[in-house]
Q: What sequence folds into this?
């Protein structure tokens, strides 16, 4: 259900700090929108943040408070990417497929929500992997 819900967002334009299916979202907004569709209200208010999370290292600790860290890849996992070595993880996505056809769904400036192949350059950037909370999803 997580991947199906994330795929509904494909084509949503990129909008910083937004989380509205079809109208706009950023990478975190995609995660928040899927959460709200499948789980319900968010567990905490999301404070304002700069585009690209520049100057902040809050994304990974915030997700770790509400999600279960993982090591094994499964469709529906939340991925955090470190875009440059030595920098905080600043890009979030949902893994949509594993194995030879590994892919992920994410929102990028200039592209909006897209499904991309999890190529080796992307895979090397994975800083953390989390599972959505168990429940009705």
A:
């Amino acid at each position: 259900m997580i991947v199906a819900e994330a795929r509904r967002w494909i084509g949503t334009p990129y909008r910083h700090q937004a989380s509205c299916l079809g109208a706009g979202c950023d990478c975190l907004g995609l995660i928040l929108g899927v959460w709200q569709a499948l789980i319900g209200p968010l567990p905490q208010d999301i404070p304002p943040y700069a585009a690209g999370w520049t100057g902040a290292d809050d994304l990974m600790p915030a997700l770790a408070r509400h999600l279960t860290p993982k090591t094994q890849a499964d469709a529906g996992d939340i991925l955090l990417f470190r875009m440059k070595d030595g920098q905080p993880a600043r890009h979030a996505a949902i893994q949509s497929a594993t194995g030879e056809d590994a892919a992920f769904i994410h929102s990028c400036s200039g592209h909006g929500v897209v499904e991309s192949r999890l190529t080796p350059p992307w895979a090397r950037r994975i800083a953390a992997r989390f599972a959505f909370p168990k429940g009705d999803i």
About this structure: The chain is about 25% helix and 25% strand.
